[in-house]
Amino acid sequence: MANGTTSFRPSGRAAPPPPPPLNHRRPPPLDDAECDTILTVEIYRAENIDKSTKNLDDYPRIYTVFGFVDAPENEFTTQYRKGGPNPQWFEKRKLKLENYEPCNNMFLHLEVIRVSRCMQDPGTSRGVEVVGRTKISLPEIGQKVVRQYALTIMENGRVSSKPRGHIVVGLEMDIAMRQRKRYSYSMY
Asked: What distances in angstroms separate CA 30 from CA 97, 158, 173, 179, 180, one per listed residue?
């Protein structure tokens, strides 16, 4: 060995490289607990809704959209918008989905609600009426979908077979990494 030859291990392999110094250790690997599933919902507009009030052009009709994904903590409401039978919102909401599994059948439920402050506008005694609702399957992770969905109403305790307008919605499912704690290693 003194003459410049290298030593070989009995297996014929060279010795492995030394481990990196302690201050250069890699952080622990990611696991599923460090990722969140985020659903981005974009509410664009509703079309041809609320035909029951078409003769009330002198009174403003105010609409909002209420949405949720199979759990109370995953709900949202849009801003109130004045409009005829075609209100527009152009709003975006992000929902963090707990316990999301692609094989689970989870749905986004949307309700277009008319809020009335006018006593001559037909509706409920509270002045709030659902003018249409829909149930939308969630897209796959990494997929963005923009579609028009039919709105239905309840008549006599049953879902009506006739659509009552449409709502235009964009959905995108994505994975977000949680902020990782910074690890510092010191020799002291």
From this structure: 19, 47, 20, 11, 9
